[in-house]
Amino acid sequence: MHGFNSSYYRDSYVNRRIEIRMKKSARKTPCEYLNFLKDSREELQELVDCLGVNVTSFFRDKKPFDVMKKLVFPVIAEYAAKNGGNPVKIWSAACATGEEPYSIAISAVESVGLEIKSGLKVQITATDIDEKALLAAAKGEYTFKNMGGMDEKLIKRYFKHIGDKYVVNEKIKNMVAFSKLDIISGIQQDHFDLISCRNMLIYINMGLQKELFEKFHSALNPDGFLIIGKTEVLPFGMHRNFKTIDAGERIYQKIGQEVLWGGLIIKKSAYSWLTMTRGSEKCSARY
Ligand SMILES: C[S@@+](CC[C@H](N)C(=O)[O-])C[C@H]1O[C@@H](n2cnc3c(N)ncnc32)[C@H](O)[C@@H]1O
């Protein structure tokens, strides 16, 4: 398929999506549909979008955001403050129509007032393969139905109610930059403090899932955090690289690099900090 590798998705999943598009485009057989697909760029994009399934919601599953507020953002804020106020970098991979990165932005502000209190800048890179979803996300306009389940106070604080729309306020919008990225063939190259990739991994095969976790690992700062969907699991062998912060909410932390040298344990940690331990003696320094 042009510019898109469908071979990594589970077969049963791809077959179901093709059947849906066949019905929608009134093509009776796979052959008929394939011929149609060859001639129609629009249908090709429809199929790619359909493979995406961008079901999402604000504060989806709620609890992971509570854990992030309590256990993730305060740690990130502390590291960033030690590091002289470098921006906090977050990647929301497979962000669909924006509810997830905006929820992360709101949680960051609510948690430790990352931007407001500490003066730290929070930059959220939000990516998805689905162009239509990204356009909607960048607009930041939602309906009453989309706001379902969100705390009234948060709606008042972070949205403008204009006509029948709820529009994300400028402060939250400015924290998030949307761009198209197929995470199967590419990766955001940066040093992230937090990567969120939720409810996308379930569609792809185990082999590729492992590759993606390796990519996430290398895109994270030492001690950076990773959050995945509730029904997704860290592949076998990856527990070596990630410490579990909350097993139920699927929140993990990259294990900083440790080396043994002349009886010392040297741990390379986030933001250029080295911790050296020998027995009960411990010392930290910048490098
Ligand atoms: C079910 S939504 C999850 C949205 C959000 N993360 C959440 O948990 O609510 C899955 C998203 O993955 C995106 N997606 C699927 N394959 C992708 C790929 N190869 N690269 C980037 N995004 C992809 C879809 O377009 C869709 O928006």
Distinctive features:
four-stranded antiparallel beta sheet; seven-stranded mixed beta sheet; Rossmann fold; 287 residues; single chain; 3 domains; binds S-adenosylmethionine; alpha/beta
Structure notes:
This protein is an alpha/beta fold. It has three domains: 47 residues, no CATH class; 193 residues, 3-Layer(aba) Sandwich (Rossmann fold), CATH 3.40.50; 31 residues, no CATH class. It is 36% helix and 26% strand. The protein has nine helices and 14 strands. It has a seven-stranded mixed beta sheet. A hairpin with a 2-residue loop joins strand 13 and strand 14. The model has no long low-confidence stretch (mean pLDDT 86). The site of S-adenosylmethionine (SAM) has 20 residues, from loops.
Q: SSE layout and pairings?
A:
Elements: H1 11-24, H2 30-39, H3 41-52, H4 63-82, E1 88-93, H5 99-112, E2 122-128, H6 131-139, E3 141-142, H7 152-158, E4 159-162, E5 165-168, H8 170-173, E6 176-180, E7 192-197, H9 206-219, E8 220-228, E9 242-246, E10 251-254, E11 257-261, E12 264-269, E13 273-278, E14 281-286
Parallel strand pairs: 1-2, 1-7, 2-6, 7-8
Antiparallel strand pairs: 3-5, 4-5, 8-10, 9-10, 11-12, 12-13, 13-14
The structure holds S-adenosylmethionine (SAM).
